[in-house]
Design brief:
Layout lengths: L1 H5 L14 H32 L13 H32 L15 H31 L13 H13 L2
Helix pairs in contact: 2-3, 4-5
Length: 171
């Protein structure tokens, strides 16, 4: 049994009927421990596969104690964090859809690499916000008859094309 377990095979069990009552009780306890361990691993695999597949609402619901419960709680808290992150992204997107280009993803309650993920999105939103603000400045200047106003921020790609078109309209 020990060799099988050390190779990751948790389906093995001691044959309780082969032993006297005292040793039989020990074997039952070992088998029970093995069943609990196998169940905890199966639940952990379920939770991790759900996260891997983007199912952030999945939770491990089996009751455990001790270290098994620590593993369960950690997996569930990770899923909760990812679910909150997604909700925060969705809330930011809904604001952008309404035209609120000042909206940002809420980073409250996040740390570590979560904040890096949020910063990437918020930095992108900041770039778009600045480009819109500059374009609005240029067009408002034209609307008011100020043909000398220019957008001076350095941009690349489509942002630069909008800047150039706005500036050239005033020429």
């Amino acid at each position: 049994m020990g060799e099988s377990i050390s190779k990751g095979d948790l389906s093995v069990a001691l044959d309780v009927a082969k032993y006297s009552s005292e040793f039989s009780d020990i074997c039952k306890n070992i088998n029970g421990y093995n069943v609990t361990t196998k169940s905890a691993f199966a639940d952990t695999i379920y939770g991790l596969e759900a996260l891997q597949n983007g199912e952030f609402s999945a939770r491990i619901t089996t009751e455990y104690q001790g270290d098994f419960d620590v593993i369960k709680q950690t997996a569930n808290k990770t899923a909760e964090k990812l679910e909150l992150l997604l909700k925060n992204y969705e809330a930011g997107y809904r604001e952008i859809e309404k035209g609120n280009v000042k909206a940002r993803v809420d980073a409250t309650g996040f740390d570590g690499d979560y904040t890096k993920l949020i910063a990437v999105v918020n930095d992108t939103l900041e770039t778009v916000d600045k480009a819109f603000a500059d374009t609005i400045f240029g067009l408002n200047s034209l609307e008011q008859g100020n043909l000398s106003a220019r957008i001076t921020t350095e941009y690349q790609g489509v942002f630069d094309a909008v800047k150039q078109a706005t500036n050239n309209t005033a020429s």
